[in-house]
Every structure is written in structure tokens, then in C-alpha cells.
Amino acid sequence: PEVVAIVPAAGVGKRMRADLPKQYLTIEDKTLLEHTVHYLLEHPSINKVVIAIGEEDGYFHSTSLGSDKRIVVTTGGKERADSVLAGLRVTNAEWVMVHDAARPCVRHEDIDVLIAEAISHTHGAILACPVRDTMKRGTGDNKIETTVCREQLWHALTPQMFKREQLLNALETALDKSLAVTDEASAIELAGGAPKLVSGHADNIKVTQPEDLALAAFFLAQRNS
Ligand code: C5P
């Protein structure tokens, strides 16, 4: 099917300790946002990308993205979920795929599997990868309370793909009730749905800390070679 990609890019990236939001950091003269959006648009099922940028964004205008007819820009909100909602409201596509601006290293082969799984399940699907480390739950003063069985634990990645209307309703309800949603699947879960976990490559990292940038550059070069 045709899928519209929604790219929330309205974060301020506090954890990066950089002068500019992380989606505008560059690898090989291109911002992370440009890497991400260009690669999404190269996928045969994605012909349109909606980007949600911050209200006070002072960087988007100097990227190459503004003049691309396949790109729609809207204003994001306070939380990531607000930005995604803003994006959902400017498209009427049947299927949407939400993908972090800060995850430039995603691969088309993973997107292919995600699409196939999302359209064959009732509650959509997300890319994820199984947890590798031993997992501990800590107490307030950082003592180990317990070891959590990692057998069924996954890292939630993006893209996450759903029917637009289903995601829109789920996010609106979650935000109305002030429930915490840090990804799209959690809104669907709160509405009683069970999105499918699709095993993706672990190099689809979210650039969050300064040291992630070199890693992302390495993974990008590998993917594109
Ligand atoms: O902060 P975090 O790493 O969870 O951000 C994930 C993605 O969500 C980033 O691409 C960021 O720009 C975006 N975001 C947003 N609006 C917010 C907060 C984050 O679009 N209010």
C-alpha cells in the first residue's frame, strides 16, 4: 500500500548537550533529518513525508527539504505525541508510518517487513529488537531490586506503522487522559490493542547522546556502501 511517513522533529534534544537540536546535527554535510527523510522517500511505498518541526525552529529553512513537493511541514507540540498528532492531522492517508528524525540508519529491508506485518495485523506493527543485556529493576537509591527476565523484553524502535485513524483516535484518547505515551504503540496498547513486534536491525539507533553521532555515521556508511 501507499504509506505516508510522519517524522516528528520538534524535539529540542537536551541530552545531546549541543547548540542545536539533534535532528540538525550533520553527518557528511547533511543533517540527520535530511538523511532520514531522503532515505524514507527512496522507499517504493513512501511517496509523502510529513515533518513536524518545533514552533521556534530556526534551522529547517536552511535544509534542502522545504522545496521538495513530496514533503509537508507542520508545527509539532510540547511532547512527541503532540508532534505526531499534528502530523496525522495534515494527511488523510489510510496507512501511516511514524519514524524518528533522529534514526537515520533504518534500512529498507526492515521497512519492507514492517509494512507486510502491519497490513496483516489488526493493531499495526513496530520495529523492535530483543534485549541483549541482563535487565535489572533498581530501587530509588539504585540498589538492585530484582533481575527482570529478558526473554520477552524488546527495545521499541521506529518506524511504527498503523492505520491513520486508529492511531489518531488512540493518541487523542491517551492525551485527553494525560497518559504517558513515549511511542505510538503505547497509545494503541492503552486502547486495548496489541501491535506486532517486528524484529529489526539493532543499528537503527536513535541519536540521543553526543557519542551516538559517530556510531550513526559508521552505520550509515555501511548501509549505503
Ligand atoms: O526526545 P526523543 O529522543 O524521544 O525524540 C524522539 C523524536 O521525537 C525526535 O525525532 C524528536 O525530534 C521528536 N520530538 C518531537 N516533538 C517533541 C519531542 C520530540 O517531534 N515535543
UniProtKB/TrEMBL annotation:
<dbReference type="InterPro" id="IPR018294">
    <property type="entry name" value="ISPD_synthase_CS"/>
</dbReference>
<dbReference type="InterPro" id="IPR001228">
    <property type="entry name" value="IspD"/>
</dbReference>
<feature type="site" description="Positions MEP for the nucleophilic attack">
    <location>
        <position position="150"/>
    </location>
</feature>
<comment type="function">
    <text>Catalyzes the formation of 4-diphosphocytidyl-2-C-methyl-D-erythritol from CTP and 2-C-methyl-D-erythritol 4-phosphate (MEP).</text>
</comment>
<keyword id="KW-0414">Isoprene biosynthesis</keyword>
<dbReference type="InterPro" id="IPR050088">
    <property type="entry name" value="IspD/TarI_cytidylyltransf_bact"/>
</dbReference>
<comment type="similarity">
    <text>Belongs to the IspD/TarI cytidylyltransferase family. IspD subfamily.</text>
</comment>
<comment type="pathway">
    <text>Isoprenoid biosynthesis; isopentenyl diphosphate biosynthesis via DXP pathway; isopentenyl diphosphate from 1-deoxy-D-xylulose 5-phosphate: step 2/6.</text>
</comment>
<feature type="site" description="Positions MEP for the nucleophilic attack">
    <location>
        <position position="206"/>
    </location>
</feature>
<protein>
    <recommendedName>
        <fullName>2-C-methyl-D-erythritol 4-phosphate cytidylyltransferase</fullName>
        <ecNumber>2.7.7.60</ecNumber>
    </recommendedName>
</protein>
<dbReference type="GO" id="GO:0019288">
    <property type="term" value="P:isopentenyl diphosphate biosynthetic process, methylerythritol 4-phosphate pathway"/>
</dbReference>
<dbReference type="InterPro" id="IPR029044">
    <property type="entry name" value="Nucleotide-diphossugar_trans"/>
</dbReference>
<dbReference type="InterPro" id="IPR034683">
    <property type="entry name" value="IspD/TarI"/>
</dbReference>
<dbReference type="GO" id="GO:0050518">
    <property type="term" value="F:2-C-methyl-D-erythritol 4-phosphate cytidylyltransferase activity"/>
</dbReference>
<dbReference type="Pfam" id="PF01128">
    <property type="entry name" value="IspD"/>
</dbReference>
<feature type="site" description="Transition state stabilizer">
    <location>
        <position position="22"/>
    </location>
</feature>
<keyword id="KW-0808">Transferase</keyword>
<feature type="site" description="Transition state stabilizer">
    <location>
        <position position="15"/>
    </location>
</feature>
<keyword id="KW-0548">Nucleotidyltransferase</keyword>
